[in-house]
């Protein structure tokens, strides 16, 4: 039996989240038959991105640069800082267009059981960052899970002289930000309450 | 604003069929954060496949080899030949596991209005191939559209001394093979009728 990369490509595509065998087949044939230029661009961009990907040295978001696009955007408001759990939360909030401040990505949430400590989440860096920069408001957008709430409370308890709010109504209890629609996220940010 | 390949990758992923902005974001972060090895393998395989992709010189299926995996598989029955419209139809029938013969991919269907002639579909090659090989049955699996039926009739009318059948009940009228579930396709192949 010949090697036939067509089948290897279909197999390779099934690693994508939400992509089964049938979708992978459709994608493979589309890439090879209908949009070769787009396919080549996708392959090259993925390779380049994998080689360059790192954490932004300011906010810890994934980026191909030393400083991410958001942190290096001078037009953004640097007085409010939104603290989130994961890179996808940044993209989810950005897609609403309703927030023009900066972010800090914890890359997780406090969990003594799983051994996730404040140090693991870069919280000391976060606290130093908040004192050092001229931030006036910290918006805690960690998830509405027990650990997400505990993480928010921990950060709030270690901050002084700065307004601290928690995003509020709209986000379903136990829900993950990345699966929530943009309007709900935008409303939750507008309706945040000082805690 | 920095270049930040993360956003270029998200954009590049939205060319995939069925993938919107939100899915593309999820895919990009998954590839860059959760499965870098799989991501690199995907990029390399896609590039290699794009450079090598061609039509099988026997059946016209897309393949990275001169002769595709199915045509070069000696264990398959070479007495029955299934004629389909597109590469995805081959994959759809293969996924049922119910057919062990060979294929011929027309890459379209007859359409005088759109200027698609028998020559464009390689039908002269197909007829020569059927006479030359020891094929006993030709299964016409073109779509149940007006053009698909006309294509099947045209091929049948140009064949002699060979059993010709048309896949039958199960395929919804006007339906495309690739969107039909495996059981329905398998039943349609079993229930084919000589025409
Ligand atoms: Zn950043
Ligand atoms: Zn072949």
TrEMBL record, chains A, B:
InterPro entries: DNA_Rcmb_RecR (IPR000093), Rcmb_RecR (IPR023627), Rcmb_RecR_Znf (IPR015967), TOPRIM_dom (IPR006171), TOPRIM_RecR (IPR034137). Pfam families: RecR_C (PF21175), RecR_HhH (PF21176), Toprim_4 (PF13662). A zinc finger (C4-type) spans 56-71. Keywords: DNA damage, DNA recombination, DNA repair, Metal-binding, Zinc, Zinc-finger. Residues 79-172 form the Toprim domain. One of its GO terms (molecular function) is DNA binding. It comes from the Bacteria. GO terms for biological process: DNA recombination; DNA repair. Belongs to the RecR family. HAMAP family: RecR. May play a role in DNA repair. It seems to be involved in an RecBC-independent recombinational process of DNA repair. It may act with RecF and RecO. This is Recombination protein RecR. It comes from SAR86 cluster bacterium SAR86E.
């Amino acid at each position: 039996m010949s090697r036939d990369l067509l089948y290897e490509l279909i197999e390779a595509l099934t690693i994508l989240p939400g992509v089964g065998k049938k979708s992978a087949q459709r994608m493979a044939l589309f890439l090879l038959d209908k949009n070769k230029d787009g396919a080549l661009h996708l392959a090259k961009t993925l390779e380049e991105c994998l080689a360059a990907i790192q954490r932004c040295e300011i906010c810890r978001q994934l980026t191909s640069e030393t400083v991410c696009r958001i942190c290096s955007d001078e037009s953004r408001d640097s007085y409010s800082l939104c603290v989130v759990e994961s890179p996808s939360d940044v993209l989810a909030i950005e897609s609403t267009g309703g927030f023009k401040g900066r972010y800090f990505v914890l890359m997780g949430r406090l969990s003594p059981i799983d051994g996730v400590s404040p140090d693991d989440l870069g919280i000391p860096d976060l606290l130093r960052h908040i004192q050092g920069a001229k931030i006036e408001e910290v918006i805690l957008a960690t998830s509405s899970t027990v650990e997400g709430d505990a993480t928010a409370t921990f950060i709030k308890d270690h901050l002084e002289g700065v307004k601290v709010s928690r995003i509020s109504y709209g986000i379903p209890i136990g829900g993950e930000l990345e699966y929530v629609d943009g309007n709900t996220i935008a409303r939750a940010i507008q309706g945040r309450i000082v805690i």
